[in-house]
Write a structure and sequence with these properties.
The chain is of the alpha/beta class. It folds into two domains: about 150 residues, no CATH class; about 325 residues, TIM Barrel (Alpha-Beta Barrel). It is about 45% helix and about 10% strand. The protein has 20 helices and 14 strands. It has an eight-stranded parallel sheet with strand order 13-11-9-8-5-4-3-14. Strands 1-2 form a two-stranded antiparallel ribbon. A two-stranded antiparallel sheet has the order 6-7. It is globular and about 80 Å long. The two termini are about 30 Å apart. The N terminus is likely disordered.
Length: about 500
């Protein structure tokens, strides 16, 4: 197909019969259609606002005026009213209509729409057939059905932009799985090209990218301004470690204290205010996701305790404080990230420096997961999984183990948001294939985003490894697409 052109993606197991497929191809410019399949009447539709000629002509005639260029926003508005409560089976979520207004459209997958008969789709088809009959009363029933089907699929392309967008390529699925570093204080040509191809959806920034507010703001504006393919054009997720204390990439910005000091000096309301202040400054600088709060329970002698990165030394205290900080970030409109699941507090060294093995019994680990249960209960959107080996849970680093990511975190604790790794280009993961091996391994375990911190070149290695894993079937394509949709849902929630 033509890159960037709209296309109705239907999984193989749910593909419709040929007549429906032919109608579906009418949701796009004629030059994008496959050989031998024509749009009835030269109909053209596009979810970004290219005119629906047949429907526009019919509406113009009904209203006694001459047809003119434009879309048919009324179809959007009527659909928005019909599905505001998820009337056609999906969970309602904000979506930007082609006329610039926000409507609420359900998150409906193409295969579900087709498999269930598509209650909304059926209504659109029947209405379109009636329109065809009015426009050309002398046509046969079959001709009316064909024209009506084309009109209906064109209208569905407007009402369901996700169906009209091209199916993601393997390279896009892989690249969107990586959280990329940025080399320097401007966007490199290679990064610009990767974003434009739809192969980058999230980045991580460090102090090297943020010498001052002006430079940082210019960089984030450059990143967000790069055009991206339809369906992948949600705002980039721009992440940063802004915990406070030793881990604070924007030196001039809040929080003004480390987590340990906040826990000792402030009540939850004060900590929430610190989180909100942090989120506001982040957003003004163009960063929309904080890789904080730390939800680990510190233990004396541990790395987090020495560095003052944890809010406290008891599960209850940490649960109250990290939840408050996360809520403050949310109040400001920033994404909060709970880390480092299932718990970093007993590690003697940082996994950025060496491999870490924790031999704590599972019962104790379960107790120390209380802060994660607390933030999940409040709806935290993202959780970072650790690269520590927890011998009571699995033989390899947690972020490589499906039993931890899918079994414990998702099935056990009920987390439904986005999972993100700790940095994988570190000594802790060298025994597991380095950047390439850990990228593919963590994605196969169910991690939605894989942080690579050192360089764009290193991130490219990770992307290629994930791409190969998808192509080989090690990562099923359906799982890769489901992961991408979780991340896109989070990015769309950020606005523009």
């Amino acid at each position: 197909m033509v890159p960037g052109e709209p296309h109705l993606h239907v999984p193989r197991h749910a593909q419709p019969e040929a007549p429906v497929a032919a109608a579906g191809l009418c949701a796009g410019p004629p030059q994008a259609h496959r050989k031998g399949l024509q749009c009835p009447g030269g109909l053209v539709a596009h979810h970004e606002g290219v005119p629906l000629r047949g429907l526009r002509l019919h509406r113009a005639r009904q209203e006694g005026r001459s047809p003119r260029a434009g879309v048919v926003p009324r179809a959007h508005q009527g659909h928005a009213r019909a599905v505001e409560r998820g009337a056609d089976g999906g969970a309602a979520h904000p979506h930007q209509c082609s006329d610039g207004r926000e409507c609420h459209q359900p998150a409906v997958r193409a295969e579900e729409l087709l498999r269930n008969g598509g209650r909304v789709g059926n209504g659109v088809v029947m209405h379109a057939v009636r329109i065809a009959a009015r426009l050309a009363p002398g046509l046969s029933v079959c001709a009316r059905m064909l024209i009506g089907g084309g009109l209906a699929m064109a209208a569905m392309a407007v009402m369901f932009p996700a169906l009209a967008a091209a199916a993601p390529t393997t390279a896009q699925l892989a690249g969107q799985r990586i959280t990329w570093p940025v080399d320097g204080t401007t966007v490199s040509p290679s990064m610009r090209a990767a974003i434009a191809r739809g192969e980058v959806g999230s980045v991580i920034l460090f102090s090297r990218n943020a010498p001052n507010r002006t430079v940082l703001g210019r960089l984030t504006r450059q990143l967000q301004a790069i055009p991206r393919p339809a369906g992948l054009d949600a705002p980039l997720l721009v992440t940063v470690d802004q915990e406070g204390g030793l881990v604070k990439r924007m030196a001039w910005a809040p929080p003004t204290m480390s987590a340990a000091r906040m826990g000792a000096r402030l009540d939850p309301a004060g900590i929430r205010a610190e989180g909100a202040a942090t989120g506001r400054v982040m957003l003004r600088s163009g960063m929309n996701a904080n890789l904080a709060p730390v939800c680990d329970v510190a233990r004396r002698g541990g790395d987090l305790f020495r560095d003052g990165r944890a809010f406290g030394t008891t599960p209850a205290a940490v649960a109250a404080d990290c939840t408050a900080f996360a809520q403050g970030l949310t109040d400001a409109g920033a994404v909060a990230t709970a880390k480092h699941f299932p718990g970093f507090g007993r590690a003697r060294v940082n996994t950025d420096d060496a491999a870490v093995r924790v031999t704590t019994p599972r019962a104790t680990l379960e107790q120390e997961m209380e802060p994660f249960r607390a933030v999940i209960a409040t709806g935290i959107p993202m959780i970072m999984v650790s690269s520590i080996i927890f011998t009571a849970l699995a033989p390899r680093p947690a972020l490589l183990e499906a039993s931890v990511v899918r079994g414990l975190l998702r099935d056990g604790l009920g987390f439904r948001g986005v999972t993100i790794t700790d940095a994988i280009d570190t000594p802790a993961l060298r025994p597991y294939g380095g950047t390439a091996g850990a990228s593919a391994g963590s994605a196969a375990a169910g991690m939605d985003l894989v942080i690579i911190a050192t360089s764009e070149a290193e991130a490219t290695k990770g992307m290629r490894a994930v791409s190969a894993a998808i192509a080989s079937g090690r990562i099923p394509r359906a799982e890769a697409e489901a992961s991408l949709q979780r991340v896109l849902a989070l990015r769309r929630s950020l606005g523009r």
